[in-house]
Amino acid sequence: MADNDLRGQGWIVPPSQYIKSRPAICDIPIPSSRYLQMRDGCKIAADIYLPEGGEHKRPTIFIQTPYYRRFAVEPGVQGVEVSPNVAKYRDVFVSRGYAVVIVDIRGTGASFGTRDSFRSPKERDDAVEITDWIVAQPWSNGSVGATGISYLGAASDFLASTAHPAVKAIAPLFAVWDTYLDNYYPGGVLLTNLASVYDELMVALDHDNRTLLKKFAYYADPHFRGPQPVDEDADGSLCREAVAQHAGNFRMPEFIGQLEYRNEPVPHRPALSSASISPSHYASGIRDDVAVYSVSGWMDGAGYMNGAISRFLTLPSKNKYLLLGPWDHGARINVSLWRASETPEFDLFAEILRFFDEHLLGLETGLRSEKPIHYFTLHEEVWRGASSWPPVKPETCLFISTAGRLSEAPEAAAEDSYRVDFASATGQRTRYERIAAIDSREYYTDWNGRDQRMLNYTSTPLARKAELAGHCTVSLWIASDTPDLAIHAYLSEVDNDGNARYVTEGLLRAIHRQEQQAPANYQTSWSFHSCTRENARPMPVGQPQLVQFALLPISWEFPAGSRIRLSISGTDADHCKRIPDDQTPNVKLQMGASMASSISLPLRPSGITDFSTHLVSSMRLH
Asked: What is the pLDDT of residue 243?
């Protein structure tokens, strides 16, 4: 099936209908380009796209990228897309009357300088100066919007947090809110491959290593010849000088390895921590009159969807929106097991155009009449609208019971023993590959049978189909013979033939089991763990402890007759750091009586949009 916006009743004016009212009015011109000099003398390379026809003052869409604003190509070659990372913004907005300014952030592309960290605070200062330059141009009407996918989306958050008066609207797409929690250390557990693969990509780009760059599908065109020099650099000598400076850039594995505890300063650099590289750290600077559109997908990395939801819950914006689709990072792939094709049919940029038309151009687009939240339900394959998050508030609780069962009520006290199997792994068709710039095409199509190395607990068949929408929470009473371990939990749908389909997952490092109230700059509707050194608590050996954490959010329809399975492991060998690295934990999972391990699920009968008149206790599982 498809993910187009005509599936379901989620939209009043579907984006695909809106875009028909906003056809392109001009061709895309060749940009002018120049260096913009920053306060410290660093020169930033910028491309400026102005719509052809007329001398009107226009709002500007501002894009900041570390992945090249534009490639130079082999002389004489035609038909090559020279801006694979930013072409989508150029094509949508310039052709419809917006000015677009795209820059190589300092230390990347044709820009001078070096990168002293991931998302350096210096980039935030640069954004202010570049915005000052934009609004001073004769073609600017004084209004600026910012958007982008991933790094570019977080840059739009940083820009808005400066409270620059020209910034009216931002659309962070598939972008973190807290770099530690949403990306590199979900649940306090380091993702092992992400930093190294990202580092390899950035070395290829920043050092203009074209042999290494060919490993990455998005940048593998053999005609690419490094970053495009700006117009004033006719012989490319300035560009070569800039690239030479990039040899001083930080290296991601070493940098991320220093962030083991959230918000703890990097040694010898007290101003730099996972907080200083996270948009949420600066949330208080985002004015409530700045419109914000947060977008993510159900398979968007290790927690980007949590970041999008938290941004929506945190910011006081009078005009804020949330979109969660059946996508991976960047919506390159429709991840549904029931998809019609791997390429999404949903026109994401039609919806983002409508957002900026409403809040930058001042057009009546119908956006304010829509519900502020739209999300896609997998397996049912429909779009839904919601007024608040979570869309399903009542919860069904299932209890871990003997003989691998999930029961509707706690039973007598018992325990299961489990020796962590460090060969347990989730494979290479997961939510984790795409965020490392790997060209994934399938998601969890090989999941069936992977739970054989785990503890498994399965419900009886559902009497009727039911929609899961929101965060599930596991509450596990665990005793371990080690003071630290990682706990991985997986939710699956088991069909009538006994085949398991991956639904979602969550993980937590046990020393971070203490729950805290979510901070003002990272609001949640799910359990929050600070993952700080201050709140870390070793597990008392052999003594059961309550470990409670949320799985990643999902909307999924379970068919009548299907069963719900909870699987528990102590590792994901393919993606996560082994904890502990020198021992193999023996775990005893408690169940029943006063230590009733369980999972709570935001579950409701399918087709119910207002649950207020339905009691959870009335929805029998069998």
From this structure: 98
